[in-house]
Amino acid sequence: MGKATLTKCPPVTMRANLKSVQALQSAGLDFVAIPVRSAEHKRDLLKQSLDMLVELQDFCSEDDYEVLTGDDIEALKN
Q1: What is the pTM of this model?
Q2: What is d(CA 61, CA 14) in angstroms, rounded to the nearest whole number?
Q3: What is the DSSP letter of 38?
Q4: What's the distance, CA 75 to chain centroid?
């Protein structure tokens, strides 16, 4: 089997990733940083992450709604 190759994350993408981390930190949400092996793998992980955020948002009461704001979710989509 051939050697796997990994592509280095461009600085612009890394800054967007760090912005997502800051949004999770700001909301007080625990998270796991997972390295990605391909663009397809990253899409799958991002979909799982967004699905979980929607699920968490659905559990929030009206009083707790600020925990996941639209801005936080938008930052995590990038």
Answers
A1: 0.64
A2: 33
A3: S
A4: 8
Structure tokens at 65: 């709604």
Domain boundaries, the chain: 11-77
Token readout for 76 is 């995590």
CA quadruple 39, 41, 46, 47: dihedral sign: positive
How much is the average pLDDT of 11-25?
92
Angle between the N-to-C axes of helices 39-59 and 70-77, in degrees from 0 to 180, rounded to the nearest 10: 170
Owner of token pair 């559990």: 59
CB neighbours of residue 7 within 10 Å: 9
Q: What pLDDT digit, counting tens, does each position of 62-71 carry?
A: 555 555 566 6
